[in-house]
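Deliverable D4.2, example record:
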Amino acid sequence: MNNEQLLDLVKQMTLEEKTAQLLQLTANFYEGTNVEGQITGPMEEMGITEQSVDASGSILGLSGAQAIIDVQQAYMKKSRLGIPLLFMADVVHGFKTIFPIPLAIGCSWDTDLAEKSAEIAARESAVSGLHVTFAPMVDLVRDPRWGRVMETTGEDPYLNSLFSAAFVRGYQGDSLKDEPDRLAACVKHFAAYGAAEGGRDYNTVDMSERNLREYYLPAYKAALDAGVEMVMASFNTVDGIPASGNEKLMRDILRDEWGFDGVLISDWASIREMIAHGAAEDDREAAYRAIRAGVDIEMMTPCYVSHLPELIQSGEVEEKLIDEAVLRILQLKEKLGLFDNPIRAADPERESEIVFSKEHRQVSYELATKSAVLLKNENGVLPLQPEANVALIGPFAQSEDILGWWSCEGVKEDAVKLGSALQERLHDGQVHIAQGSGVHTITAEQIAEALETASKADLIVLALGEDAEMSGEGGSRTDIRLPAAQLELVKQLKATGKPIASVIFNGRPLDLHGLFEESDAVLEAWFPGSEGGAAIADVLTGVVNPSARLTMSFPQSVGQIPVYYNHFNTGRPLNPEKTEERYVSKYIDSPNEPLLPFGYGLSYTTFEYGDLEVSSQEMTANQPISIQVRVTNTGQRAGVETVQLYVRDVSGEVVRPMRELKGYAKLALAPGESGTATFSLNEKQLRYHHSDLSYRSDKGTFQIFVGPNSRDTLESTFKLV
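Output generated by the structure prediction step:
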């Protein structure tokens, strides 16, 4: 259908049919889902009529090719105008082939592989009947207490923007109609959900508009520039107004300023939640505020279907607002080719061939190897030698709980376990396995077994971490250390005097005290996905040389939070050489700096940086500068070095961060080989939002920093004239 035909279709719809198109429900409301006794109960609970269900526009959370075919066919038989359903789901880091959590994917600094993971997730989802994924989540985060940090790619707006665009490209391809194995992407959560106070999920967000535009909005804009089809409103308030009813955010910025003409959807029940926020008195007012803000689809509450008709009839809401929303939904259905083929790519036979295929699992494996960050490695403990005699101890030694939150159709039992994989690889040596403790509990018997197992080995590998329920949505924590039971296990095994290499499986940066100092080596595995055990075993044994870099700082303690690399200076900055000074900005019981900074990560080889070369000491609006550094692999193994470029505006109209990432280059170097990382820096990259919200640069002195992370860098300067 062309746009004129879609407009004609809107004209043919009754007001009730139009408002029903704006309703999204879960699958148990619909015929064909084989969920006995579930249809009438939810309808009565939500106050939704059978007529609204029959005319609704989209379904949340159903998957499986045959199930979706059945529901779509049953729905189409009842559809007066032949308008098909949209099927949506949270395909966050894989459908059934589960990739590492997005925070881990960010640590790969590999946008091409991130794009490939989204393409595979789309292929598996589409053949299983889905049309839309609620991804990518691009919220910038600085607080690891928030459980949903596992869904983001970190604390930097530039890097987040690169991954945001890569995920959108992977999900959507070049044409949804011509590529039925792709999904429409939905960027979330607009806006600034990652800044919830205290790291507590769904909590208040309050910041200046300048701060919002400078750090939190860029990654959403990058998704829009990449052509994302949908945007999801966040749960939180922005400037005192819940996002789902925030006209400035949704109409002024998203629609008018950025020109977004796609579908805007609420998060689960967030329109009705305006009542709890105190921004609406009842469902009627919530519907009024949300439709005026431009929210097209209401997820899992009946405010629209129950009250939009009367709001239109009373003249409080113009019917054209509903017409615009319906048209956007119909346009998305047309882009997906659903009017021509309501079943689209759903195919039970292809589903059995494509989903969780060997080819897809191989990409999951590769991404997991590139996402594991080596945080510490003293005395050459890692990699493990083929003849090593190892005790693998800990609640994750043979755990299947390594997929992480939002693992969609992933099955824990399908995950490759670390212990099994390590035994396969150390066939010349020995691997003795003991659980040692539970995730949260430990017994005297477990300690005794762990000590006996350790006595048989020359080296201990500890497999520790969070279970999946400890992060993700609703998974906020005030104490982000490992559970006490696991720290007790570390203490007991440290007393044996044997070398310890620790592997941690988790969904957030942790306070590593009680583990970091007691371990000779620490490998951050995150939740690595379906092939996690194989990937981590290959990193431990040196089949793969780790190359990942942190995209969130690891704090010294929870008391430092938020701690992030691109912070401002103060009027009384701490001089690291005069730590005894009192009247400066510091803690009296902790360093200011994080335990591990943004961009940090080790390798099994070593790299040496040559002198930093800058092409000119002056930059103009029309003349960029070139920055080069020579890097040499001075170790015995081939490795990949991620060379990072940071800039500081020394004096701005608004205070500027101490460092800002402006680029990075990956150098794959053989032992003894040298390579050159080259960067081009131009005036546009120096622009920022001033106090009047204008976006421009300041003339003056700038510092350049180049190195393997945000802390350990070479320095130079130039002037913008």
